[in-house]
Amino acid sequence: MKESRHPHPHIDPRQPRDASRPGTNPPVFVWRPPEGAAASRLTIARDPGFRDVCVDLQGLTESSYLPETAFAPGAYFWKWSAGGLESQVFTFEITPAAVTLEVPPVTEW
Q1: Which of 23, 52, 1 is nearest to 43 (CA)?
Q2: What residues have CB less than 8 Å from 13, skipping those under 6 apart?
Q3: According to the model, what pLDDT value does residue 18 have?
């Protein structure tokens, strides 16, 4: 499914933005699933063909995810799927300049 992006973050909240360099590591992931979708899948990989998958979460009931640990510097690719639809592939780069901001799970707060 090819998507168009609205520039206003309240209308189109997807993060990290395509071809971006997030300022924090790990970045927060946010997407907007189709209306009525009960659960989503988030997949993050080190390659555009998704052969080197580093995160694969299924059954997500929230359309956001904050990884607990930082990513190694480099290029990453991410996509979501829900309700029988799959998003386009987005890319982002973690640079050494990104601030490491690891947050433990809520259960540890």
Answers
A1: 52
A2: 30, 31, 32
A3: 94
Element (H, E) at 58: strand 53-60
Tell me the pTM. Answer: 0.87
Rg (CA), the chain: 14
Q: Which residue's structure tokens are 């904050």? A: 66
Query: Please, are residues 17 and 3 in contact by the beta-carbon 8 Å criterion?
Result: no
Q: Distances from the Cα of 61 to the Cαs of 54, 64, 82, 83, in angstroms? A: 20, 9, 10, 12
pLDDT at 34: 87
Answer whether residue 2 shows pLDDT above 50.
no
pLDDT value, residue 108: 80
Taking the C-alpha atoms of residue 18 and residue 35, their distance in angstroms, rounded to an integer, is 22
Q: Tell the residue number behind the tokens 């991410």, with chain if given.
A: 78
Which one-letter DSSP state was computed for residue 98? S
Length of the chain: 109
How many alpha carbons lie under 13 Å from residue 102 in its C-beta half-sphere?
7
